[in-house]
Design a protein that fits this description.
Blueprint lengths: L3 E10 L2 E7 L2 E2 L4 E5 L6 H9 L6 E6 L2 E2 L10 E4 L11 H11 L4 H14 L15 H13 L5 E5 L7 H18 L3 E5 L2 H7 L2 E6 L2 E6 L1 H6 L4 H6 L3 E7 L4 E4 L2 E4 L5 E7 L4 E4 L8 E13 L4 E7 L6 E5 L8 E7 L3 E3 L1
The structure holds adenosine-5'-triphosphate (ATP) and magnesium ion.
The site of adenosine-5'-triphosphate has 13 residues, from strand 2 and helix 1.
Length: about 350
């Protein structure tokens, strides 16, 4: 039995299906990343576990106990909100200690717990500051400290890194993963950022219009997407619209049978594509598409090319360390498993 179980959760706002039959389990120490575009139901899913949403149908269980009707404060769940707010008039210590004081914990125990968690997050020296004296990243850590100090049974994080700049996000990803493993807490982590999700999750749920389209390991959703939406949403891709003739599309050295009528779409994992000289033999199995360099951007360690191909109006955008000239004929090579046709 998983620690957190959600069964057939449904939540409608008028005609909007914010949650449409969602059932996901999260086990001890497991990190579930929930990704999907804006409005796909991610926050609603977290809020329904935390008890801030009255469900239209479905059940939430923690350690086998049905908590669907319990108020938020009785659920042993901590939620880190998308727009977290620290209390501006309170110090870091008081912000973090707040939940423990509510629980009427003895003073020494509170001091110890707060200091332990500040130490864990490497922000001990901020203990006497007010939120206005902290950077965005520091405030985010304090908010995280506040969520974990109460030792919840389940941790819910809604876009915890969204206010941080790209470099800090990359570093904190490692820290969150390490922290979550240390705490051994079942965690649901909501993010827009598919790369962030793949890199820290044990399981990934891809949501769209309230539904979970695919639930699997990061490798499964990346390598075996169940449909066009998932293929396109995960990874760094180019999408090519291709003409269908007699139930088939032809591109480069390959022919695919498709069920779509007039046009089909191909998702190409552009990070895995290579630009080769026109006559080069890649020596690996894959898709070879002849094309012509239309645009070139210098990116430091590599170039980014805009490539025109005969089979589609859409351009391919592929990075390469090699220098090619505008107008040069080349071949784009995409290894098998790194393109999907729908
Ligand atoms: N209280 C509410 N009243 C009416 N509609 C709501 C309410 N809360 C959410 N919705 C709608 O439910 C859908 C899902 O919203 P939700 O906040 O769960 O999306 P999200 O995936 O978290 O999006 P984002 O990535 O923008 O945070 C949206 O269409 C939203 O407008
Ligand atoms: Mg949200």
């Amino acid at each position: 039995m998983a620690i957190l179980e959600t069964r057939n959760l449904k939540k409608y706002y008028g005609r909007v299906r914010a949650l449409d039959d969602v059932s996901i389990d999260v086990d001890a120490g497991e990190l579930l990343a929930v990704i999907g575009p804006s409005g796909s139901g991610k926050t609603t899913f977290l809020r329904s576990i935390a008890g801030f949403v009255k469900l239209d149908a479905g059940h939430v269980y923690i350690e086998g106990k049905d908590i669907t009707e319990l108020p938020p404060e009785k659920r042993d769940v901590s939620m880190f909100f998308q727009n977290y707010a620290l209390w501006p008039h309170m110090t870091v210590f008081d912000n973090v200690a707040y939940g423990l004081k509510l629980r009427k914990m003895p003073k020494e125990e509170i001091e110890k717990r707060v200091h332990d968690v500040l130490k864990l997050l490497d922000i001990e020296e901020l203990v006497d500051r007010k939120p206005s004296q902290l950077s965005g990243g520091q405030q985010q850590r304090v908010a995280l400290a506040r969520a974990i100090v109460v030792k919840p049974k389940v941790l819910l994080l809604d876009e915890p890194l969204s206010n941080l700049d790209a470099k800090i996000r990359l570093r904190i990803r490692f820290e969150i993963k390490a922290l979550q493993q240390k705490l051994n807490l079942p965690t649901v982590y909501v993010t827009h950022d598919q790369e962030e999700a793949l890199s820290i999750a044990d399981k990934v749920a891809v949501m769209h219009e309230g539904k979970v389209l695919q639930l699997g390991t990061p490798e499964e959703v990346y390598k075996s997407p169940v449909n066009f939406f998932v293929a396109d949403f995960i990874g760094t891709n180019c999408v090519l619209t291709l003409k269908v003739l007699d139930g088939r599309v032809k591109i480069g050295n390959k022919i695919f049978e498709v069920s779509s009528k007039e046009t089909a779409r191909m998702v190409v994992r552009s990070d895995e594509a290579e630009v080769l000289e026109a006559r080069a033999e890649p020596g690996k199995d894959g898709l070879r598409i002849p094309g012509e360099i239309k645009g070139k951007l210098y990116m430091g360690s590599k170039y980014r090319y805009e490539i025109r191909i005969e089979e589609s109006e859409d351009a391919l955008f592929v990075n390469s360390g090699e220098s090619f000239k505008i107008g040069e004929k080349i071949t784009v090579f995409v290894p098998d498993g790194s393109y999907f046709v729908y």
